[in-house]
Design brief:
alpha+beta, 13 helices, 54% helix
Amino acid sequence: MWSRRWIADLEAGAAPREARQARVDARVGKVLSLEHSGRVVRCDVAGSRPEPFTVEFAFAELDGPDAEALRRELRSGEGGVLAALAGRYSDRVGFLLVPAVEGATRFSCPCPVQPGPCRHVVAAGCVVVEWWDRSPEALFGLRGLGADVLGASPGASGEALGVDVEEALWGEDPLLPMVPDPAPAGLEDLLDAPVARRMAAAATRDPLEQMRVVADLEDFLDAFGRYRAR
């Protein structure tokens, strides 16, 4: 749920057509590489020029109060730190851990389509969330959470590491978002991510409950689309 929220928020800042093309680009292998060092992730993305565009994401370190709140939550959670590093953590940990697109995520691309998340940034973002889902411990390192916070090290965060995108991310059953039908979708258009978030915010002031409402709506739309296609 948490990685879906991040990529949905990133896509919401792009034009719908650009977001659709970016999903296709991610699926057909135009994201050529993923490297990370500390709190920075870089991806080379093939575009319209001979040389790929290097997309860079930089993620904010958790501040003191949030880091302390996360430490308390990990201590009280079932399975503790090791379970969290394996991706099994509470909604509260997810709310603190996953960086907000606005305020905790910076991104850049040298392509001419600026400002805002361009096609290359969104395509790289699709690969980044796939990486988070497969290697949950990487997300802790990207938020600056070392052994002093977790009680167990998520890895050598200061060392530059490379990821074989095809081998480590896609596998035999990729989990990237489905490419939407470009034709008007009616209900899907009505309940796209920004509208759903406004509906959830109007119904409750609890941020965690808002995210649950949006996730439930997304699951409903997915099931509705499969039912309609029969």
